Amino acid sequence: MVLAGGMLLGMAGPARAQSRDADAELEALIPDSALDDAESWAMETDAAATPVPAEDDIDSPMEEDGFSLAWPEDDDFRVDLEDIAIDPDLAQLLSRENGRPAADLALPGMAQRGGEDESEEEEAVETRLSKRITLSHPASFAEFGQFDDFKTRFEGLSDIENLRDGDDNFAQLANRAEEDTALLSDMLAAYGFYDADVRQRVETPAEGEGSGEGGTVVADDARFIFTIDPGERYTYGAVELPGLEAAGDDYAEMRAAFEIASGDFIQEDRIVYEGIDLEVALGETGYPFVEMGKPDLLIDHARDEGDLTQPVTTGGKYRFGQVHSSDPAFLSDRHLLEISQFDTGDIYKASEVEDLRKAMLGTGLVSSLVVKPREVVAPADGEPGVVDVDVAFEQAPLRTIAGAIGYDTGRGIRTEASWEHRNLFPPEGMLQLHAIAGTQEQLVGATFRRNNWHGRDRVLTLDVFANTIDRDAYEARTISGVAKFERVSTLLYQKVLSWSVGLELVATQEREGTLGGKAIGPRETYFVAALPGEVIYDKSDDLLDPTRGWRVSLFASPEISHTGGSRSTYLRSWLEGRYYQPVNEKLVVAGRAKFGTITGTDIENIAPSRRLFAGGGGSVRGYGYQEIGPQDNLGDPTGGLSLSEFSLEARYRTGLLDGAISVVPFIDAGTVENDSTPGLSDMQYGAGVGVRYHTNFGPLRVDLATPLNPRPGDSNIAVYISLGQAF
């Protein structure tokens, strides 16, 4: 009404100037008396007659509806406005206008921190992760025990780091910084910091210090500082595993496998890991049908704790029953049970089921398979039930034709060809036909091999062949039959102890030495029967590429030889030891020593092909194959009755090709003597450097070596290529 009166007063002048002949409605609203004396008329209105209440008597209008709300004090009208995000390009222009540096100005979407009212009880430290990212945090946060893991994970997941390229602009970086802020908050919660606060700001160089043209600041100059206030780290309150009590007598052991207890600091990853550990422990204790429910972590901010519930369904305890093959004619039930690591009646172990699956893949006879336990007898009256193991598979291609061609300075040109059927005589009965054609060797032969014969990795081999060999040391025409039974160490299952025993029957015509490619000396016929055996004790960490540990092997072969109407009995044997010592993460020092001897007869009674020789890629590098040792008048090796060899390598893993390349300097030494007692006289030394390319199945080896004390006729350089380390 006051406002209306004011309006009317403002209109009074023009109204009097108008005609008094107005319509009735306007005349009733504004009488002529108001035109004559507007001020007096206004004071006679109801609004003018209403007294103005004191300020203390004014009630809140909300009281009429039953609410009571006090009028705000003046101080309550203070509003704290967030800092306005500043466009960096505009900030740079302003800094040039006003002479202010562009550093510490926020990118779009970033809150600006700082001010006199901000203080921290604990001194903040900065941890620089990269050129672009720095973490600012209390010093104690770096000591929470998993800080290094925290940093590595953040850097690996950071959008700023992973999405950067040369075309980044400030807007892109701002969005990535916001995502990284959210990422840090999520990660802190995963480590138990549920009250954490993360803020970020950006620093850019001052004008003239940027990396752009003319010193302008570009996006790549930005450095992001994430300020972390972690707050209290929460601990586990109640930790419960409902359903685990069904494990009965195994409960205590299984509860210990879930290594989370009340009072431990929360790390959400650990809940997953411990759940897996519990599932594995149950699977290894006889529970094939375990189901782990979804864990529930209830966070209580009032207690700074989280109550964890991990439901478990044990599914009952069982023993192994039978193994059932989907194709018994190809791989029988009995054979699959023989190659398994369990027997009927053993407590179920999930690892042994997985081991059977790997063993079947290792045969090379199947292309795909599924191995699953199946209940046949349910648990009852506290006794375990029985599960059979069903094995369903598809056959892999069984026939292979292979060939190879190569050249060796010691053995000349060599070509090989073979055909094999890996299951011609089920189960796992392989037949291989093979041939060699070369300048110094020719061979035809057949091999029958029964893998996993009466047990895992037990191999029966029958081998017959006829061959001719023409080398500097001897010429031989040989027919041989070999039977061998062995327990082998494989890439799938490296064994501490492996062994072999065999029977060897040999008929060979041999003579020593050659001259211009023609044999000289008389040809003699030898009939040899041998019982070779070998034991290997392996405490190294890898079969093809060991980096620590040691390995010892002992070979012995008692033999009877008939030649020229006389019979000789002797023992061929050698002992070899290998040692591997890591110096640091990149360097491994490896050493080898081998001593061999033939005792029981003179060297003349032993066929040249069965004497001891040294030299070559697996012996003393830098010398030709079998070239070290006594020589005849023509300078050809004759072999000997004793052997001594030594090797030392430094295997250095470089950073080339993501660490796949190693450089290996080495030195070898060896001697062969006519005395049956191994000695150290007349040593030949070779040295060189090798390169290893590490693959997922072992290193590829290339060695370049030279003799250090060459004799007449020794080559200056020798090259060796093979799979696996030299020893």
What does this entry look like structurally?
The protein is built from 13 helices and 31 strands. The strands form six sheets. The protein has a 17-stranded antiparallel β-sheet that branches. The N and C termini lie far apart (108 Å). It is an alpha+beta fold and 727 residues long.
Shape call: elongated
Biggest β-sheet description = 17 strands, antiparallel
Strands, total number: 31
Number of domains: 5
The total count of helices amounts to 13
Radius of gyration: 45 Å
Task: Describe, in short, the structure shown.
With 727 residues, the chain is of the alpha+beta class. Helices cover 17% and strands 38% of the residues.
Summary tags:
single chain; 727 residues; alpha+beta; Ubiquitin-like (UB roll); 5 domains; 17-stranded antiparallel beta sheet; 4-stranded mixed beta sheet; 13 helices; 38% strand; elongated
What's the arrangement of secondary structure elements?
Elements: H1 2-16, H2 24-29, H3 32-36, H4 38-43, H5 46-49, H6 88-98, E1 124-128, E2 133-138, H7 147-157, H8 159-162, H9 170-190, E3 197-203, E4 223-229, E5 235-240, H10 251-257, H11 268-283, E6 291-292, E7 296-300, E8 305-309, E9 312-313, E10 318-325, H12 333-339, H13 350-362, E11 366-377, E12 385-395, E13 399-408, E14 412-421, E15 429-438, E16 441-450, E17 458-470, E18 474-487, E19 497-512, E20 514-515, E21 518-519, E22 524-530, E23 533-538, E24 549-563, E25 566-582, E26 587-599, E27 642-653, E28 661-673, E29 684-695, E30 698-707, E31 718-723
Parallel strand pairs: 2-4, 5-8, 10-12
Antiparallel strand pairs: 1-2, 3-4, 6-9, 7-8, 11-12, 13-14, 14-15, 15-16, 16-17, 17-18, 18-19, 19-22, 19-23, 20-21, 22-24, 23-24, 24-25, 25-26, 26-27, 27-28, 28-29, 29-30, 30-31
